[in-house]
Write a structure and sequence with these properties.
transmembrane helix; alpha+beta; transmembrane; Magnesium transporter; membrane; disordered N terminus; 2 domains; GSP17M-like_dom; 172 residues
């Protein structure tokens, strides 16, 4: 078996985490409907002086959720392209102004104008090529159906006992 490693160290990343995707290990000590609840459970363990380096939060039944934000129109597409191009143009103009001995303001203004024009052009080309197949904007998010808290066997029983105490606490 051949092992490939980095020239800067072994086959583990900082914090002794594996570099390659690796299935989680450990025993389940809690299961929660939301990531926030799982995070709260691990925070409770940390506050209870539990060795949280033995703990892993695992999202189970992963889903890609795409939330539709709004309808796209030529105005919205061109406006977004112009703003995006303006930011890039200002950045390019700023860099140019720092390294060219001619008027700083002129370099900044040139970068802004060229950025807006190129942003408009690229946005128009991109939107026209979609030919109405995707006339909406959206935001994507990876979520899980549930979040399991796993713990290494050496301290799993103690973790279960602590999380049982957390479950018995009244919610504020």
């Amino acid at each position: 078996m051949m092992m490939v490693s980095s020239p800067f160290g072994g086959n583990r990343a900082p914090g002794n985490l594996p570099r390659l995707p690796t299935p989680p290990t450990g025993w389940p000590i809690g299961s929660y409907a939301t990531y926030g609840e799982a995070q709260q459970a691990v925070d409770f363990l940390a506050d209870s002086e539990f060795s949280v380096s033995d703990v892993t939060i695992v999202g189970v039944d992963l889903m890609l959720v795409e939330r539709v934000i709004g309808k796209l129109s030529w105005g919205r597409v061109l406006g977004t392209g112009a703003v995006s191009g303006a930011w890039f143009g200002l950045f390019a103009g700023l860099l140019l102004g720092l390294f060219v001995n001619q008027g700083f303001a002129l370099q900044l203004l040139t970068g802004l104008v060229l950025g807006v024009l190129s942003g408009l052009m690229f946005a128009a080309i991109g939107y026209s090529m979609s030919r109405g197949r995707r006339d909406f904007s959206s935001a994507s998010q990876l979520v899980a159906g549930r979040y399991d808290v796993l713990c290494q066997p050496r301290s799993a029983e103690q973790g279960r006992e602590l999380l049982a105490k957390l479950a018995l606490k009244p919610n504020p």
